[in-house]
Amino acid sequence: MTTTRPGRAGDRARGARPTAPRAVVVTLVAAVAVLLLAVCTAPAAGTTRTVPPWPAPTDLQTRADAAGLHDVWGEPLAEHVHTHLTVLDGDVPVTVPANVGHSDRERFAAELHTHDTSGILHVESPERRTFTLGQFFDEWDVSLGAGHVGGLRGELTVWVDGHRYLGNPRSIALTDRRQIVLAVTGIGQVAHLPQPFDWPPQYR
Questions:
Q1: Residue 166 located in a structural domain
Q2: Among 109, 112, 113, 148, which is disulfide-ready with 73 (CB 3.0 to 4.6 Å)?
Q3: pLDDT per residue over 127-168, tens digit each?
Q4: Residues 162 and 132 both lie in one domain
């Protein structure tokens, strides 16, 4: 006597949809997981992950686009503020280069740029809006995230106006005469807050 497995013959008779083979389901789940992992770990617009020094990029328009900035050379300004940035490798200062997002020769100036190596970030915009530290690092083409600045990796300690900042450093707003310090140390090492930046007279 032939024995039929319960349910199978009846399901076919009722026109039930056949179940996808288990191997196909597993493959699809794995593919989705890989895609999600790729999205979650994709680098920010600042992609340099080497150790300093980090020079100013020469592809000004490309880096401005990556940071959501525009060339506003010669436009009247509605906002003109300055923030100071200090980056430390342990206790060693890292140079913030001149002419990030700026070139007199090319007559190019993004809303956010540097003029010299003082660490002063210039916000010069024809409209009032909030610019962030993440935008500057994207324009500089240096990655910034939890535990790293570019190729400096370990523990990232952030201070804003002398106070510890525990949020995402990319979201720090660039306001007038704000002082931002990013210190990357080895795991377990203590970061030291440097002396406040002494603003030149023209910025006071």
A1: yes
A2: 109
A3: 999 999 999 999 999 999 988 999 999 999 999 999 999 999
A4: yes
